[in-house]
Amino acid sequence: VSAITAEYHLRPVAVLITHGHLDHTWNLLPLVYDLEIPAVIHASDRAFLADPLLALSPEAQGVVATLTPNQIWREPAEVITVSGNTNRSFAGFDITIVPTPGHTAGSVCFQFGNENLFTGDLLFKKAIGRTDLFSGSPEQMKQSLKYVLSSYQDETLIYPGHGENSTIGFERLNNPYLK
Length: 179
Hints:
This protein has helices spanning 2-7, 22-25, 28-35, 47-50, 58-67, 138-151, 168-174, and strands at 15-16, 39-42, 79-82, 86-90, 93-99, 108-112, 116-120, 123-124, 127-128, 157-160, 166-167.
């Protein structure tokens, strides 16, 4: 990782984590240790950093244990926890961290300016995140989606945790889960 950042003259300052599921934190430890940077996560999902299997179904726990029999999970040396609507500055960017529980209790969106929203697994192009895993909540998901849709303009670009980018306006018109 350091070779790539050096080649492109990049200086990462933090890893922003939208939620603590393993598919979003799998390579976190090598990244934060190699670059000597903190991880930023909501306080409600911090426990997943030390034990990511907590958030998995029993079947998925078995698969991960089989694929990584000697894996030792631990929290990074430096973790910045957030809670509530928080404004932070990283590398000259003002970022609003917006709690959007539902997919997990500690799910957040990261807002860069007025036009860019990293939604994690809250909102995808024509889909929403699942709520049936540990700390997920269908009711909180509904409230978070309602908040995001009422707080952002149609032109706001969304960058989901999986799949294609979209806009708030496109999702209002085309997302079957928002009808």
